[in-house]
Amino acid sequence: MTIVEEYRRLHPRSAELYEQAVRTFPSGVTHDTRYVSPFPIYVDHAQGSHKWDVDGNDLIDLVMGHGALFLGHAHPQITEAIIEQVQQGTHYGACHERELEWAGWIKKLIPSAEELRFMSSGTEATMMAVRLARAYTGRDKLLKFDSHFHGWNDSLYGVRAPEAMTPHSAGIPEATLSNTLSVPPNDISLVEERLAAGDVAAVILEPTGASWGTLPLMPGFLAELREATARHNTLLIFDEVITGFRVSLGGAQQRYGVLPDISTLAKIMAGGMPGGCVAGRADILAMMEYREDSGEWNLERRVAHPGTYNANPVSAASGSKMLSILAAGDKHAPLEAQHRRLLQECNRILQRRKMPGCVYGLASYFHVLLGYRCPEPEDGVEWSWAEGEMPPRIPVHLGTALKRGMINRGVDLMGLNGGFVSAVHTAEDVDAIIGAFDATIGEMQAEGLV
Hints:
By secondary structure, the chain is α/β, with parallel strands linked by helices. It has two domains: 3-70 and 331-446, Aspartate Aminotransferase, domain 1; 76-326, Aspartate Aminotransferase, domain 2 (3-Layer(aba) Sandwich), CATH 3.40.640. Helix content is 39%, strand content 14%. It is built from 17 helices and 14 strands. The protein has helices spanning 3-10, 12-21, 64-67, 76-88, 97-109, 122-137, 174-177, 188-195, 210-213, 221-231, 251-256, 282-285, 295-301, 313-326, 332-352, 396-408, 427-446, and strands at residues 43-47, 50-53, 58-61, 115-119, 141-145, 180-183, 200-205, 235-239, 262-265, 276-280, 357-362, 365-370, 411-412, 418-420. Strands 4-10-9-8-7-5-6 form a seven-stranded mixed sheet, with helices on both faces. Strands 1-2-3-13 form a four-stranded mixed sheet. The protein starts with a helix and ends with a helix. The mean pLDDT is 93.
């Protein structure tokens, strides 16, 4: 039986639900990365590091709420905090004490967070970061890097593909596209050349590389970027929607010792509920302040920011509990050790099976590359490509086969080529993931896919 035949055999109810979904949603899904051929799985419930689909299959989850669930599904303390708050009210339409508690944890943990403003998602956070940068500098243009993902807002495209030559995404006016410049990453001279024109409001990037480190940055690039943007009076925005609280308690900025002017945060910060924020220098966030007796400022110069669910008390309760647990400082080190073992063993499997490719990542996320020769790893985990060289992406047919095969073996990857390890994944979970990877690679080879 082939991988796809086994997939169909194991998931008849998911196939039925998908038949209904394609008549309701475009391509039958509600998030781009949930699309998988011949159909996605449908989940019934989840607990800890596992979830169970509608056909009763037990899956070790490496999606982890698209990276939001650092402490796994239905964490008892977070669940208790949510239930307690729901019983008190879900939306006051007013200020409340929990928003101060939530903000306090973010200010304590994120080095650059002098002030902040809440919203409901990472996309909203990057939208506000861009608006603040333009208002503060009086400039219109933005500089981003090819393949770096910042949500789906118009100014930042919302696609994971090189845009330097041809900006992507239908439905965005040319006038909007013309104000966003995209250049290849890791070339500081190219950045310097563009900033010298004096018309760029901000440089925005994922501080560990495009698509949460799929295309890593060269060592030292962040520091070079910090110096260049400061010299050209251009703001530096770190999109830490994924890396915040994950690659260290204080995010990539703490791990690498480089502070941006503005940070965007979401996912982990809300404990699995909707939530995001813009945090950064107080003088930049002051663009959102009301000023007494200043009609001209309030009506024409102030950065406006409504939002029905900003800092809603349920997300605030969930996020505060999540961050208070992480602040104890005992989660990251053991998690990174589990993550390192997973990557080392998966790379040994590829070497033993003579399968071209590698598994690489940082802290607690990883990516799988198959079908290409990779440089020799450092300690089986750290991969260093030549300066200016970017690793290719996994071919779609291999990624799809890997995704299906791993699900057949009880493991759900994030998209087609990676995943998030959480603080509740056990050593037994890691062993099972390694076994599933080994078996799936063997099945792919047997089918002649590589």
